[in-house]
Amino acid sequence: MATSRLQKLLKLLESTNESSRKTAAEQICNIAKAHPSQLVSLTRKVHSLLYHANWDTRVAAASTLTGLAEAFPHHSVQSLALAAGGRREQQQTAQVHVDLAAFDLDKVLGSGAPLLASGGQEFDVVDSSLPVAERVAKQRQLLRERIGKCLACTRASSSSSETGGKSSASAYNITAIQQR
Questions:
Q1: What average pLDDT does the segment 55-61 reach?
Q2: Dist CA 120 CA 97 (whole Å)
Q3: Which pLDDT score, from 0 to 100, does residue 171 have?
Q4: Of 59, 74, 52, which Cα lies nearest the Cα of 24?
Q5: SS3 (DSSP) at 174
């Protein structure tokens, strides 16, 4: 089976010789410059080497990706807007500047709303006299009700109260069977 020049260079990135790894990285960048349409495919192949077992191979893959990033232009939002015919005024209004000297952390902490914060109280079971298995089953049922996946949980718990007050563990078993 014939191997291409690129495959050989990728194999050289796994070499034990530092100079051959460096030269292979440079050559891969030259190939990418010559064939920019293949950049995505080439980047994927080099990216897979970032997870190689050998540290030196991972370093060589990283330097190759660095060379590829330096070889190809990066586009900013402003340059793309100008290329698309955008006006300079639109570009200037799109920029947001944060003045860190005027930033008041105490004001943010005092008047800001917590983002995704939880003390965990919403997951606490009030009745600690239940056995551990029933508490776990009740927690699972409450969690499913909160995330909206368990319409059967509410039906099962209401039917268990109608049938003589079975434990919430049996209601959990009913819903687990229904979900299968």
A1: 94
A2: 36
A3: 46
A4: 59
A5: helix
Furthest-apart CA pair in the chain: how many Å?
Answer: 79
What torsion, rounded to 10 degrees, do the Cα atoms 133, 134, 137, 138 define?
Answer: -150
CA dihedral sign, ordered 57, 58, 64, 68: positive
With beta carbons less than 8 A apart as the criterion, state whether 7 and 42 touch: no
pLDDT at 126: 62
One DSSP character per residue, 17-73 reads: -HHHHHHHHHHHHHHHHH-GGGHHHHHHHHHHGGG-SSHHHHHHHHHHHHHHHHHS-
Give the chain's count of helices (H) and strands (E). Answer: 10, 0
* Residue 1 pLDDT grade (very low, low, confident, very high; cuts 50, 70, 90): very low
Q: Hey, CA dihedral for 11, 13, 17, 19, is it positive or negative? A: positive
What are the tokens at 106?
């105490």
pLDDT digits (tens, 9 = 90+) for 66-120: 999 888 877 676 766 676 665 544 445 555 566 777 777 787 777 776 666 666 6
Tokens matching residue 171: 């209601």
